[in-house]
Every structure is written in C-alpha cells, then in structure tokens.
Amino acid sequence: MERQGTPSEHGYYFPAEFAPQEQVWLAWPERPDNWRDNAKPAQHAFTQVATAISQHTRVCVAVSPSQYLTATLMLPETIDVVEMPLNDAWMRDIGPTVVVNDKGERRGISWQFNAWGGEVDGLYAPWNDDDQVAATICEHLGLDYYRAPFVLEGGAIHTDGEGTLYTTEECLLSAGRNPHLSKTEIEACLADYLSISKVIWLPDGLFNDETNGHVDNLLHVIAPGEVVLSWCDDPEDPQYAISRRALDVL
Coiled-coil segments, which residues (predicted)? Predict the structure, then answer.
C-alpha cells in the first residue's frame, strides 16, 4: 500500500549496504540494443549469478511477459520468477530502496526513474515500465511504500546505516535528474526519505561512467567509517585525478 508522508516521519531509516539480507532481486536482460546477440550471452551470465547467490540467499528475478517462459526454463526451480513489465535489467537502479525501523519492520521507497537523465542525457526511452518496478515489487512483497518526488537510482547512493550517505556531485547535481533543486534541497530530500544526517559529496564518479558518475562504481562502505575506493596509480589515466579528489574529500 502506498503511504503518505515520509519514512523519517514514521521512524524509518536506510540500513547499511553491508546489513544482513533475506532476499536479492535481479531483472532479466532482453534489450537487443543493449545486449548483444539478443541478450542470450547476458541471460546465461545472469543465470549463473542468480544461481550462485541462491546458494546462500533467496533470489527473485523480475521478467517481462515476453521472456517469462525463457527465464523459467533457464533458471533453477529454487529461484522465484516474477512477471512484470520492464524496459531493461538494472535492478539496483530501478528497484525499491528498503528502509527499516528499530523494530525491524520494513517499507519501500519508489524513486522516480528516467533512465539516468531523461530527455537531457538518458540512455534509452521509453522508461515508464522501469519507473513502476519499485512499486510493483513492493506490492508483490506486501510492503507499504512511499513514492518520492525525486529522481534517484539505487547505484547513486551508499550509506553506513548510521546516518551518513555517500554520493557524487556529478550524478545528483546533473541536469537530467533534479535540476530544479539546489544541493541543500537535495540533502533535505535525502534526510526526509532516508533519515540521513550527513551527506559526503564526492566530486565525480568513475571515469566515463554513462550513469553520470554513480558512487557505487567508485566507493563501497564496508563498515561505519570505513570504505574501499577505486584506485589508479597511472598519472596519465583520467581516473588518477578522480580517485585522488575523492580521497581528499574523504
């Protein structure tokens, strides 16, 4: 059920990336303009990844109606296949952000999704099916959820679960996301929906990243106050300066 208000008003916060999980969701690849050979190699790779994860954690795979039979034949019976409309296969970016409270109760957030930039520099169109995936998954799981009036992808943010969030200026301040919002207003939105008290803004993401510099290509939080950072020792490589600017901020 869709909830009014914001998660922070109701005592929910964004848990750490490394917090225990009960379930992992993937989306099934099929776009011929994005995946070579009609996505057959990608489907085999996704099957291998899903199978490996399923040895330890329950796995659900979202599949478009046209690919449902193919996916059910390729994936092990231990993996749940859930039919829903999709535009592409990037579940970290289109799926719900799950927030929790001190009782361990969970709710979801459905951010607005516009294919990493919409009409400005988005990577494909249409994206309307992907924009509904988060809400569809929440309804499938019986999770109450919030619709956030804010363009954001899951790969654009990392948190330590204690109120600190990491992101990049390149991504969250890009013209194709939320150009009507200032940096301060974006921080306020993150506080409202994720109960964030501190935002660490890294200047740029990984060099030549087509998502406008998602932080998950550059940095991962492995414990409160502890991160791993993509690195480069070649001064001639553009990533050399990017990684050092990030380190200076950290």
Answer: none
